[in-house]
Amino acid sequence: MWNFYKKTPKIWFSDQGGEFDNKELAREAQAEDIRWEFSAPYTPEQNGIAEASNKVVVNKARAMMIDSGLPQFI
Asked: What GO terms in the biological process aspect are recorded for it (predicted)?
């Protein structure tokens, strides 16, 4: 697992979502000597950068849908 700068991260920080509860990711983290940390449940404030990025993506997708002329409720 490499990041944008072609370096292996030392820590993975994620929420406790089900998509991260997986043995393959745990094996990868252990093999690469990566510490895995989780935010507290129901506290998106602890992961502000990801939450802000998600908001940007949702807003852009909404703008493209409105601009396309498709019905807003599909």
From this structure: DNA integration; DNA recombination; transposition
Domain borders along the chain are: 9-38, 45-74
- In angstroms, the CA 38 to CA 56 distance is 23
> Within 10 A of 8 (CB to CB), how many other CB atoms are there?
10
- Give the long-range contacts of residues 35-44, CB within 8 A, separation 24 or more: 35/10, 35/11, 36/11, 36/12, 37/11, 37/12, 37/13, 38/13, 38/14, 39/13, 39/14, 39/15, 41/16, 44/15
The model's pTM is 0.54
Q: What are phi and psi of 39, to 5 degrees?
A: -80, 165
